Amino acid sequence: MASPLHQFEIKPLIPLEIAGIDVSFTNSSLFMVAAVAGVTLFLTLSMRGRALVPGRWQSLAEMMYEFIGGMIRENVGNEGRHFFPFIFTLFAFILFGNLFGLLPYAFTFTSHIIVTFALAMTVFIGVTIVGIVLHGAHFFTLFVPSGVPKVMIPFLVPIELLSYLSRPISLSIRLFANMMAGHTMMKVFAGFIVGLGFLGGWAPLAVNVALTGFEFVVAFLQAYVFTLLTCLYLNDAVHLH
Asked: Please, are residues 164 and 196 in contact by the beta-carbon 8 Å criterion?
């Protein structure tokens, strides 16, 4: 029986090497492309009619648009509307990547730390650049809590700086760990179904059905949490709170 971790193995589909660097097109790359194509098709086809009374798919697209717009307004303010395209794209990419990973024989690229860390570092670097561009050197006052006695500043600044630098680590691990753990559990119970046979496999089958439903919720929740934290980090950079 295959290991539960076998499903996370990255396999080259189109081997390619440039200047000694392996840049092969892998199963992970394939499902990233599929996620981008899925988001593009969903938004393009659902909004093609632009009906005054929206249908089912147009309603879903509009709900996603309003959901992200409301999240930005509540957590960043009106200044955050400039970042809507990036935040919406981030949410849709992670959500579709999580959902596609629930399809049979699919690959969940958000279960790899290198992918989630790359997304988190993009957010971290982008937010830092935004803060410096908007505030210049005044941005670094973010690491000095207001109202703190001057004698405490040398102790608190390293703590604030460490907390700030740990953001991409916590952001990436949260998404990666939740997706990997859920899929591993599903694979383990699937192994019990096969191992126990027709008579004894009903209990693990029922658990796996419940886990599948739970994973649909987790897929949306983790995309939401990742995007929400991005908005909170943007709020810090824009308002220096």
From this structure: no
Task: Provide the β-strand partners of residue 25.
Answer: 14
Residues 212 and 33: their CA atoms lie apart, in Å, by: 24
* Amino acid identity, position 189: F
In a domain, 193, yes or no: yes
Report the alpha-carbon distance of residue 71 to residue 137 in Å, rounded. Answer: 29
| Domain count for the chain | 1
In a domain, 19, yes or no: yes
Supply the range of the domain harboring residue 141.
6-239
Per-residue confidence at 241, pLDDT binned at 50, 70, 90?
Answer: low
In angstroms, the Cα distances linking 36 to 26, 30, 94, 113 are 16, 10, 10, 19
> Do the domain assignments include residue 46?
yes
Q: Are 67 and 220 in contact (CB under 8 A)?
A: no
Query: Is the Cα torsion angle 107, 27, 60, 77 positive or negative in sign?
Result: positive
- 16-27 tens-digit pLDDT: 988 888 889 999
Q: Does residue 1 fall inside a structural domain?
A: no
Model pLDDT for residues 61-109, shown as the tens digit of each residue: 999 999 999 999 999 989 899 999 999 999 999 999 999 999 988 999 9
